[in-house]
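Good morning C.,

I know you're traveling, so I'll keep this short. The sequence:
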Amino acid sequence: MALFKKRQEGKPGEWYYCLVHKKVEEGPECPAKDRFGPYGTPEEARHAMETAQERNLEWDTDPKWHDKRSGDGEGENAT
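The tokens, ready to paste straight into the viewer:
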């Protein structure tokens, strides 16, 4: 059994945005839990937080994910 996990090697041209250091990095420098990506360009990685916000807004306002079920406390019959 290995004592240390093998570090994931990055590929040239893969860009990530580190959530801890708030920076763009080529190849995974930081752990996967702390980064978004991969992105095709440094510019795409630089805008990772804006992209995430836009996607979250789309998800939050998508009517397919906000159907009203009876008994859930929402809708016309809720008091």
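Safe travels,
E.
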